[in-house]
Amino acid sequence: MLSRVLLVSAPGKVILHGEYAVVHGKVALAAAVNMRTFLRLQPQGNGKLDLNLPNIGIKRTWDVARLQLLDTSFLEQGDFTVLTEEQMEKLKEVAGFPEDCANHERLAVLAFLYLYLSICRKQRALPSLDITVWSELPPGAGLGSSAAYSVCLAAALLTACEEIPNPLKEEEGASRWAAEDLELINKWAFQGERVIHGNPSGVDNSVSTWGGALRYQQGKISSLKRPQSLKILLTHTKVSRSTKAIIASVSNRLLKFPEIVAPLLTSINAISLECERVLGEMATAPALEHYFMLEELIDMNQHLLNALGLGHTSLDQLCQMTMAHGLHSKLTGAGCGGCGITLLRPDLEGPKVEAAKQALISYGFDCWETSLGAPGISIHSSSSLDAPVRQALDGL
């Protein structure tokens, strides 16, 4: 068991193209967004297990000796299978939730306990740890915040328990694990995502683990060739929605109007493939012309997504406000509210981007200037982290 403090971070994700079409076997393109979740793991000698999630106001403590006495044989899952209802109930008993605990809080705690007990149970004794997780990602916005959380937990616990080596050298600010270690991190993170979401696709945790950009189709995930970084505005409309209900409504529309909706899905697939081709060209010789093509694809996809019933007045407003400044936007993720992305061409002048950003903020949206293609799960030295991140992890 390692005795040093570990600091890790993992990115969120956005869907570039392929929302909902991916449910029907089409291609989706996803990219890591340069907004991250950070975790600090500190071994301690007080016999307690402390979990602190300041973003959602959770502070929980368990007695390690009591956890040690529990029968955790129900967690023996060499093949990484789904937890049964009975196993979930046992995990809830271990968690000991207060009556007023909200569902999202329960799921975050259950994922943590599942990963802690599963990964650390091979140790001679369960370790006493103080774990704090803080995120730049807004929860429930479709940006993969739960996946980044699960990836950070898996990486930190596997490293602390010496299941994988710590890749950080003394003189380094940050480092990443070898490919086989990332595979193991991703497998455990997917299990954490299953606790939270039940039946996730695996895209979010894969993007968070590997970083960069990925292509996903019918369970197969592969890396995308792409330019080093694409700059975007990421806008959160703050309009909440149920992804499950929206998937059902798109499926119903396909059943009701198959000859109309099936071609829409085929067109969205063609946009994903064309975007993949353009990004591949940009990886070797980026030109301004490529950005104009990406903008056209964004506009076309947004109209197709509206035809599938995924639009919302807030997203219309977002697209109109950015178009007024010569920028091109589309929804990303669930639609019917949620988030949108706006491509920032490299020839755009700073004041124009800032004017668009301020217009969106003044309307009541949250808006961040960020980039796509961020590195996946990483381990850091304390000095390499920005002061606000260090303060958040220290609970200041």
From TrEMBL:
Protein role: Catalyzes the phosphorylation of mevalonate to mevalonate 5-phosphate, a key step in isoprenoid and cholesterol biosynthesis.
EC number: 2.7.1.36
Single GO term (MF): mevalonate kinase activity
Entry-linked PANTHER family: MEVALONATE KINASE (PTHR43290)
The protein's name in its UniProt record: Mevalonate kinase
Compartment(s): Cytoplasm; Peroxisome
Domain GHMP kinase N-terminal: 123-212
PROSITE patterns from the UniProt entry: GHMP_KINASES_ATP
Cofactor(s) this protein requires: Mg(2+)
Top EC class of this enzyme: transferase
GO cellular component: cytosol; peroxisome
Species in which this protein is naturally found: Pteropus alecto (Black flying fox)
Taxonomic lineage from the root: Eukaryota, Metazoa, Chordata, Craniata, Vertebrata
UniProt keyword terms in alphabetical order: ATP-binding, Cholesterol biosynthesis, Cholesterol metabolism, Cytoplasm, Kinase, Lipid biosynthesis, Lipid metabolism, Magnesium, Metal-binding, Nucleotide-binding, Peroxisome, Steroid biosynthesis, Steroid metabolism, Sterol biosynthesis, Sterol metabolism, Transferase
